[in-house]
Write a structure and sequence with these properties.
The protein is mostly helical. It has helices at residues 8-20, 22-25, 32-52. It is 68% helix and 0% strand.
Length: 56
């Protein structure tokens, strides 16, 4: 049956981050490899931005 996952919010947040990327909002890619590489690219960009933020 349906079971609520304890850390589901982590997955939902990640999907929301991916959805904010214009190219990831819709899947127009013909090849799965291309779509997978786009996911990597978007996540790398997000993490670099997060690391580059000046700490308060």
């Amino acid at each position: 049956g349906f079971v609520v996952l304890k850390r589901r919010w982590v997955v939902e947040r990640t999907f929301a981050w991916l959805g904010k990327s214009r190219r990831m909002a819709k899947d127009y890619e013909a090849l799965v490899e291309t779509a997978e590489n786009l996911v990597y690219e978007v996540m790398i960009r997000l993490m670099v931005r997060r690391l580059a933020k000046p700490s308060p």
